[in-house]
Design goal:
- This protein has one domain: NAD(P)-binding Rossmann-like Domain (Rossmann fold, 3-Layer(aba) Sandwich), CATH 3.40.50.
- The chain is built from 10 helices and 13 strands.
- Helix 5 links the parallel strand 5 and strand 6.
- The structure holds uridine-diphosphate-N-acetylgalactosamine (UD2).
- The site of uridine-diphosphate-N-acetylgalactosamine has 20 residues, from helix 6 and strand 8.
Length: 311
């Protein structure tokens, strides 16, 4: 069994990743500064004696290296980040500190403590407005936000460090992740989390545009499993892979599934399309299939039903 360091452990993707690692019998040191992470996300993990939680800021020089030095670490899963595209536009300096500089510190920790493997939370945002679908990893990378640029820069920082200092790096380009524990707080939160809250509160949801825009919605359970594979398969060489389903779902389809579960809900409201919104986003899942042997298993209807059933 491996010992894994998870940054951003109390976040949406982080906490599911920690739960998956513990279920698979690994021991985990989780780090979070609780800027966007939440203690309650870790309520299951904290009951395990295989889990250690440390409140620390990965953007603080030396913090990750100090923690990694406490015991031999088989892999780092680096998920801590400024997660909002809008916030990266409002505060590019903070984006650089939390999404670029922090990644460099993680790469340095791996070098200093000879951690053999780093898994990084990258994003489909590195592709920008790609129109040639499905988007392959080799597609042109033209980020259109400081957030997307930081994710692309971080991939390069980690891959360069890994090649020079002899550790494997897996960059996981997540598409539209949804599921339990996703925070619906901001108008720019993931659409599924916003819809979930609105239907629960008996309020109408708003679709921006005609609702025919499509996304590759991938369940956080699948994403956590992809992270576990990338962190624990020691034969895996460095590389980059989309973490997606390869299936396009329109917003109208998402709203229809919710409406089936909430037959008395108010009808969907429509508003003008958001400026900068891309119409279609769809990932090519083949590299993850071939290299990670990962295939997303949760169909959108199943994933939404699970979310809706939660108390
Ligand atoms: C996702 C990422 C973003 C960035 C981008 C790259 C999330 C939350 N956002 O943006 O960080 O990586 O991909 O392409 O994962 N919508 C509504 N009603 C609402 C909320 C949203 O109609 O109440 C629409 C929205 O206009 C868009 C679609 O739903 O057409 C998906 O919106 P999103 O914010 O969940 O994700 P996306 O793909 O725009």
């Amino acid at each position: 069994m491996a010992h894994i360091f998870v940054s951003g452990a109390a976040g949406f993707i982080g906490s599911h990743t920690v739960d998956g690692l513990l279920r698979a019998g690994h021991s985990v040191t989780g780090v979070d500064n609780f800027r966007s992470g939440r203690h309650e996300n870790l309520s299951a993990a904290l009951a395990s004696d295989q889990f250690t939680l440390i409140e620390a800021d990965v953007a603080e020089p030396g913090a990750v290296a100090e923690i990694c030095g406490r015991q031999p670490t088989d892999a780092i899963i680096h998920l801590a980040a400024l997660v909002s595209v809008q916030e990266s536009i409002a505060n590019p300096e903070l984006n650089h500190a939390l999404n670029v500089r922090a990644t460099h510190l993680v790469a340095e920790a791996a070098r200093l403590h000879r951690v053999p493997r780093v898994v990084f939370a990258s994003s489909a945002a590195v592709y920008g407005n790609a129109t040639d679908l499905p988007i392959r990893e080799s597609a042109e990378k033209k980020p259109i936000s400081p957030y997307g640029a930081a994710k692309l820069a971080s991939e390069a920082l980690l891959l360069g460090h890994g090649a020079a200092f002899g550790f494997a790096v897996r960059c996981q380009r997540y598409f539209n992740v949804y599921g339990p524990r996703q925070d619906p707080a901001s108008p720019y939160s993931g659409v599924v989390s916003i819809f979930d809250r609105r239907y629960r509160e008996g309020k109408p949801v708003t679709i921006y545009g005609d609702g025919r825009q499509t996304r590759d919605f991938v369940s956080v359970h699948d994403v956590a499993r992809a992270n576990l594979i990338a962190a624990t398969q020691s034969s895996l060489a460095s590389g980059v892979a989309n973490i997606c389903t390869g299936c396009a779902t329109s917003l109208l389809e998402v709203a229809t599934i919710f409406a089936q579960h909430y037959p008395k809900a108010a009808p969907v409201a429509h508003a003008a399309g958001r400026s900068g919104d891309i119409i279609h986003s769809l990932g090519a899942p083949e590299i993850a299939r071939a290299e990670l042997r990962f295939r997303a298993e949760v169909a959108i209807a199943t994933g939404l039903a699970e979310l809706i059933r939660l108390p």
